[in-house]
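Quick log. Single chain, no ligands specified.
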Amino acid sequence: MQPSTQAASTPLKRLALHSTTTCSAAASAYGKCIFATYTDVHKDTCKEEFAKFGACLREAVSTAHSPGRVHLTRGHA
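-> predicted structure:
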């Protein structure tokens, strides 16, 4: 496994890197929201947390000078 200080070579690897490092606080907030509501999930549950996590990932990946753009879409819950 390469150290995280080296640039990830593919869009998926960059996304994975940023989701666990750069955006870890937003990922944690989204995960905690999902965990807290998993027995009663409905449309737009954790919408705000998901939006913040997605925005963080888009910003992190785009500032990493990636050759392709990563498009995140709203999933379930």
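Confidence is low (pLDDT under 50) at residues 1-5.
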